Amino acid sequence: MQLFDEQDKKRQLSYLDLERLSKQSNSAEYKDAQRLAAQITTVWAGQALKENNFYPMATAIEVYGIVMQELGLANPYL
C-alpha cells in the first residue's frame, strides 16, 4: 500500500466534483474546491506528510501498515 497512490489522488479529487461546480465558476464553493484541488495536487507532488495537513487521508489501519512496513515489522493485516 502506498500513501500517495495516484488512484487515491484521483479519488480525493473526484470528491470535490469540480466538473459540476465549474458551471458556477464564480461561486465560493467552486473557488474552495479549486483551492483544495491545488492543495491535493501539491501534497501528492511533494509526497510528504506534513503537520496540520488534511491530505492525504488514510485510515488508522493504513497508517499502521505504513509504519510496520517502514520499520520492517510483520503486519498481521496483510
Can you walk me through this structure?
The chain is mainly alpha-helical. The protein has one domain. It contains four helices and no strands. The mean pLDDT is 82.
Total helices: the number is: 4
CA radius of gyration is: 15 Å
Mean pLDDT: 82
- Secondary structure tally: strands: 0
Count of the domains: 1
- How many strands, what sense, and barrel or not for the largest sheet? none
Order of helices and strands: HHHH
Strand-pairing-aware structural class: mainly alpha
Q: How would you describe this structure in keywords?
A:
mainly alpha; 78 residues
Note the topology.
Blueprint: H1 6-16, H2 18-21, H3 28-46, H4 60-71
Brief sketch in words of this structure:
The chain is mainly alpha-helical. It has helices at residues 6-16, 18-21, 28-46, 60-71.
